[in-house]
Amino acid sequence: MKVKGICLGCKVNTYEMEYILCKFKEKGYDVTDDKADIYIINTCSVTNMSDAKSRKVINRVVRENPNSIIVVMGCMIEAHKDYDNDGVSIIIGNKDKSKVVDLVEDYQKNHEKKKILYKDFDKEFEDMFIKNMPGRTRAFVKIQDGCENFCSYCIIPYTRGRCRSKESNTIIKEISELINNGYKEIVLTGIHTGHYGEDKDISFSELLSKVAKISGLERLRISSIEITELNDDFLKVFEENKNIVSHLHIPLQAGSDKILKLMNRKYDLKYFKDKIETIRKIRPDISITTDVIVGFPGESEDDFKETINTCKEIGFSKIHVFPYSVRGGTKAENMPNQVPENIKKEKVSRLLEVSNILEHNYLDKFINKEVIVLIENSNDDKSVGHTDNYLKVFINSREEHNTLVKVLINKRVDNYLEGERND
User: Fold this and answer.
1) Who's near 342: CB < 8 A, 6+ residues apart?
2) What domains lie within the chain, and their CATH numbers?
């Protein structure tokens, strides 16, 4: 039988889907991108728009595949526990994802539809272990689940639950297996990655130190980390282990103390700026990317201008800009002074212009310099890959996939670099 996975949302969802599809392969199923007998849909609920997209995808799959087994799971289900759809065979939340193959095979036997939700779905970390991520040069490893920050705009603490962590020995074993299977770069991911170990007798920094010492690991990347988690222990590990890449994605969310407070973020601008300054003393050429939400309830034009100035002052290498999206069930949903959609759209455009300038400024620093590129794709006369600080580089020669190549950068073209092999 043929199985197709449809994954919406974050890197954690991607990892979970890869695990599920690998389990189907082990049982002899054919994983496909075409029409299938079984569909697995991992939903997202980070915004109301994510909810709508998840429902749209489910409805389309149901409509086009009336005779297929359809499994729907994930955050949208946890956010809307009353969700039902006559065309869906199995509905689960964020627990029992590791049991999807068994649930499908049980359905094949008795044809009984199931909806399984738990009040305490976040009691324990649900273990998953992958050995391969076909089609990817860098492999994700999920080390943590859940979030307890309760930012006023975010539903995720309710859909993913409390923080819980994978056993460190299992993480080490999983990464070692991936390296043995040829992966040179590993990305540690979670819902709140830097909170790893709060439920264990180990800190994130201690885990990072252990992982960085795994033989054969060329690059170790952190998918995202909060500024409050970059403590002295982390910075020491970061300084001592050069295979931890020179790129950190640190969400700012707003460049105004007034808006940060309304968002229930756990820092102010001085704390954020001081920490960035410390990081740059360790790695002067580090790429620091960020997320910013514009048009949050109560954000005035002056607040937005302060955000623009903050981003310029910090000098991010890229800003991921999001218009504030009302999310049902959050504190921000009922805040006064909601910003009109047309103003949000205009603010997104303005901040993206700033991001573009900052990105170009950062890229220009590497012209006439040598960088090391991990090759991801190539054709007859050109290859493409990323540096450890996540610069996209095109090389004017065919290079072998998944190899590290020295490249002399000769120019920037828009938001990427071009260069020649240099060895």
Assistant:
1) none
2) 2-116 (3.40.50.12160), 138-364 (3.80.30.20), 370-421 (2.40.50)
